[in-house]
């Protein structure tokens, strides 16, 4: 079973997490076994003042000792103490090196000094701790205050001698393995969450077909819309142009027609996923057929096409004196005719649902061999449903990175209720910054024909 398959389903997710926990535990155990164990020896000193005087004097003496405890602790790592320890135990070490393995700590509000020594040898750790405690006690007595007989009045008593440890202080196998297992649990959980999040955004043609029950009839490139993207003339021998030719042939095969074709191009929710109808139209024109591209998205209010000769579709539908001949633009550079949307103050839905629009589609189907109608998204306006009834079927564009099976299904249901045939899905992949070639046909065709959608 491929590792990637473990991420599928609840059992697969659990398997991944358990595997990560075991790997984390095993890695921690291995690192623990590879680490050199160290041992600690600890002895404790009790420091007080020798006094036969009143309770007040004893209290003052105790206050004095506690005020000096930090200084006493710092003496534990001084050369005076450590040189004596090295000499006594005949250690193969330097004062600086030994100082790094010796520490002295003071429990809060106490006169107890705890001396700790760390070493890879348990016996050496014990010997060093006891020796440091002995020499430290002697030094504290020597440096402390004296009585009238010049005798030290600080009393240092050993209340605990270091004993041979039975287990290393580091590494802590139980703690390390628990931490490793916990880290594995965290990483395994994040891996499952991350993978499923990635998979929810990532779509393949097979997955789309499985989720929606609709065939994928083509994959085309989309653009950011900031410049002309006439891929069919920009790079006619390139991969993107071939994608439109493949979509062209799949449409013909789906409709079992090569001589007469009228299709609607739409999307589920966002207009940014609409396929470039111009590119598809140019792909059909390559085969020698007459092509008309109609931009029936009157709601976008974009400046698409050259409207100097007429007002486009909007004016044609709202002004009965406008002729179809005046509304349609002839583009010899592209080899197709275009009917731009134009701009209107009247409700777009009213114009699209008018009998004049229906008569228009019927009329151009009798004139052109291929008619491509671009519409607003299905779920944002009823225009796609209205126009779908006038064509042979609809192609639903789906942007791969934003594909949502629920919205696609809802769009398909809306179109089917109206009697519109769903030819299939066209997957749109995002593409940015494709430059125009100098002197190319795309430039000559004019930047105004950027893309439909």
Outline of this structure?
The chain has helices at residues 9-34, 55-74, 79-89, 95-99, 122-143, 173-201, 205-212, 231-234, 239-255, 277-285, 312-318, 324-327, 348-352, 355-367, 383-388, 405-417, 441-445; strands at residues 39-49, 102-105, 112-119, 154-160, 216-221, 261-267, 291-295, 329-331, 336-339, 370-374, 393-399, 422-429. By secondary structure, the chain is an alpha/beta fold.
Describe this structure in words.
With 453 residues, the chain is of the alpha/beta class. The protein is 45% helix and 17% strand. The chain has 17 helices and twelve strands. It has helices spanning 9-34, 55-74, 79-89, 95-99, 122-143, 173-201, 205-212, 231-234, 239-255, 277-285, 312-318, 324-327, 348-352, 355-367, 383-388, 405-417, 441-445, and strands at residues 39-49, 102-105, 112-119, 154-160, 216-221, 261-267, 291-295, 329-331, 336-339, 370-374, 393-399, 422-429. An eight-stranded mixed beta sheet has the order 5-12-11-6-10-7-9-8, sandwiched between helices. A four-stranded antiparallel beta sheet has the order 2-3-1-4. Helix 3 packs across helix 5. It is rod-shaped and about 130 Å long. The protein starts with 8 loop residues before the first helix and ends in an 8-residue tail after the last helix.
